[in-house]
Design a protein that fits this description.
Strands 1, 2, 3, 4, 5, 6, 7, 8, 9 and 10 form a ten-stranded mixed sheet that branches. This protein has helices at 2-11, 13-44, 46-50, 76-81, 141-146, 183-189, 209-219, 227-271, 273-281, 286-322, 332-359, 362-365, and strands at residues 55-59, 86-101, 104-113, 127-128, 136-140, 154-157, 160-168, 177-182, 198-203, 222-226. Helix content is 54%, strand content 18%. It starts with a helix and ends with a helix. It is α+β, with helices and mostly antiparallel strands. Helix 2 packs antiparallel against helix 8 and helix 8 (227-271) runs parallel beside helix 11 (332-359).
Length: 369
């Protein structure tokens, strides 16, 4: 029966192509919308995810970088460096603010870092320099391009002018961008000279970051979170800021896409109703009917899935090339979920048609023949 199902399927190539194409387009929509949502989250937490910090230390009661205020005493930086398991602790200053760039006001997260340290600043090579003076700034290169500014131009951050000395990479998101100034400069702009807002911690090789975090919390009245915990906390905050709309769109696209796949497979099975009726008329058992229909549905579904996956990856690169500010990430989790869902639907979509076939009188199949 499997051999018959395979040959029968390939005899009608046009029908197979239409069914496969419909499923492929549904998979493409599902993965692209999921990819946009995952990309927004990845961009928004890039500072946390891609830096070298294993731990983030902040004011007690604070658990976020986005839309949060944390203030720590300057002496805590040296104190954390003395904790067992800490390789390096570096303080940064931080502000949620706007930057005036090329006449436009852009919301930005401003990070104050020490250019001599290996953590806290831009994590990718900067065009120009990141060894900035107190009157210089490192700006995201996409924001710079969108607003028609470049190296040597001036922008305003919190009402003060700075010259662009460097252009950073991977520091843009739909939510905001990251602008880098010197640590002391941001403290002055915050009107809190010599203060710090967060401490980034590298742990010693072999040390358990969570254990080190607990030691820091025990020694100081602060909140210490691992990179993974801090990133997840920020992602939850980002969703509360309105990105949950994209998540809702992702869910709706998944439901609609799976419905399209189910209807495509159901319709394709009904189109072969007469063929299956002939099988029953010549003595095919219920198991043989189910096997034939299931094999044809699974083959169609898998071909559509593979085609849709290829289209999604091609579209990802094409969209990124045209719109570099839009990051599309296709998580393995989303691909696996779509694959499992399509397998389940391909089986379910065969149950009703086979039951209809079972209820047909074999003689009806030959009427009008």
């Amino acid at each position: 029966m499997i051999r018959f199902a395979w040959k029968s399927l390939w005899l009608e190539k046009t029908r197979l192509a239409l069914s496969t194409g419909g499923i492929a387009l549904a998979i493409l929509v599902i993965l692209l919308i999921e990819g946009v949502f995952a990309g927004v989250e990845e961009q928004a937490t890039a500072y946390i995810d891609k830096g070298k910090a294993d731990l983030f230390v902040m004011q007690e009661g604070v658990a976020n970088l986005h839309m949060a205020s944390s203030f720590l005493p300057p002496a805590i930086e040296n104190g954390i460096n003395d904790i067992e398991g800490v390789k390096k602790a570096v303080g940064i200053t931080y502000s949620n603010t706007t930057a005036e760039i090329g006449g436009n006001r852009i919301f930005s997260y401003v990070i104050g870092f020490d250019p001599q340290e290996t953590i806290g600043g831009p994590w990718k090579k900067v065009k120009g320099t990141q060894d900035i003076s107190p009157d210089e700034v490192v700006l995201d290169k996409i924001i710079a391009a969108q607003n028609g500014v470049g190296l040597g131009d001036e922008i305003k951050v919190m009402g003060r002018s700075f010259k662009i000395a460097g252009l950073s990479q991977d520091t843009f998101s739909i939510v905001s961008s990251i602008t880098f100034l010197r640590k002391a400069t941001v403290a002055e702009l915050n009107q809190r000279p010599n203060s710090i807002n967060y401490v980034l911690v590298e742990t010693e090789a072999g040390s358990d970051p969570r254990s080190v975090a607990r030691r820091i919390e025990k020694r100081f009245k602060v909140n210490a979170m691992t990179q993974e915990e801090f990133s997840q906390s920020d992602r939850l905050m980002i969703r509360k800021m309105g990105i949950d709309i994209i998540l809702a769109m992702s869910f709706i696209s998944l439901v609609i896409g799976l419905a399209v796949i189910g209807m495509t497979l159901y319709t394709a099975t009904l189109d072969r109703f007469r063929d299956y009726g002939v099988l029953k008329a010549v003595g095919a058992s219920r198991f043989q009917l189910y096997t034939t229909v299931a094999v044809q549905s699974l083959v169609t579904a898998l071909l559509g899935f593979v085609a849709g996956l290829l289209l999604a990856y091609l579209s990802k690169f094409a969209v990124t090339a045209i719109f570099p500010e839009l990051l599309i990430v296709l998580p393995i989790r989303a691909v696996i979920e779509a694959f499992v869902a399509i397998l389940i639907i391909s089986v379910l979509a065969t149950i009703i048609p086979v039951r209809l076939i079972e209820a047909v009188d074999p003689m009806v199949v030959f009427e009008g023949a």
